[in-house]
Amino acid sequence: MTNFTRRSMMATMGAALATPALLSRANAAEITLRLHHFLPAVAPMQSKFFEPWAAELKEASNGAIDVQMFPSMQLGGKPPQLADQTRQGICDIAWTLPVYTPDRFPVAETMALPFMVKNAEKTSVVMQTLMDEFGEGEYSGMKTLAFHTHDGGKLHTRGGPVTSTADLQGLKLRAPNQATGEMLTALGAEVVFFPVTEMVVGLSNGVIDGCCLPYEVVPAFKLQELTSTTSQPAAGSRGLYCNTFSLVMNQRSYDKMSPDVQKVIDDHSGMALSQRIGKQFDEFEAFGKSVVEKQGNEIAEIPAETIAEWQELAAPIHDAWVQKLNDRGLDGAAILARANELLDA
After folding, report:
1. What is the set of domains in the chain, with CATH numbers?
2. What is the C-alpha to C-alpha distance for residues 335 and 326, in angstroms, rounded to an integer?
3. Where does the secretion signal sit in this chain (predicted)?
4. How many CA within 13 A on the CB side of residue 87?
5. Measuring CA to CA, which residue among 29, 138, 141 is closest to residue 90?
6. pLDDT tens digits, residue range 71-123?
7. DSSP character string of 178-207
């Protein structure tokens, strides 16, 4: 064997032996995904969901997917711009609320109507199903990863409990979204709209008497110290409202991935992820309630018959929403009927 042949064979063997190591290194953090959201880094949503989920993506892809967190709108802009930032590629993944841009994602907003919520887990499954069946076209330029909701809102007030329509008369309440504001107005409350970050000031200086929010929001804003009573629907009744959330990804970011990496994303999104997030929000809700109880605040029950009366008064809001869906070329009655069917199942 000539020296040339021997050197050629050794070079070939060396290349073959080096190939696995090269592939292993190349497979590490091949793709960096920027996840943008509006909550601070210390929020449970980041520590208990985003960070574990990112770690699972990295492990399942053998290190190919690295998710970088950008909380508190660190990439710029305001929360209502998150969906557009995802579509434009300013970020790769965003977590946002459809109600931040009213009427733009009407199917995704449907579950934010009054009395369209059981607990967060069940309602998140309903929302994901509704979006799979009716709403995928709403997020053009984006790959939808999950849709979910929080638990039903409660009335947190500085004064006494709210257990009847009479108790709402003239009560100044901060409303969480447009449809809930319409319902509270119809019930006799004086409704104001401002960002949740301004709610603390409003409660402190008496501009508002209370707010309509789930328990899970209480610890972050120390609402247990600013209010004395929480009024919640009787067990078995639907919640007053919930807000809806979307976790979306830039379509181009997904399309440029290899099929095996795309499969990792697919396997960690969809219905199972929606249910998982909903379940976590139920855990956040339980913790928030424990904070209210520890403070010694009164927790009152809104009787089931009162909730039934309020649902009847909210019917025109649902009818108007059906018409809004119809105006978009959708079957509004079918969408609302399907949502109610799934909630009651």
Report:
1. 29-151+242-284 (3.40.190.170), 154-241+296-317 (3.40.190.170)
2. 10
3. 1-28
4. 9
5. 141
6. 999 999 999 999 999 999 999 999 999 999 999 999 999 999 999 999 999 99
7. HHHHHHHHHTT-EEE---GGGHHHHHHTTS
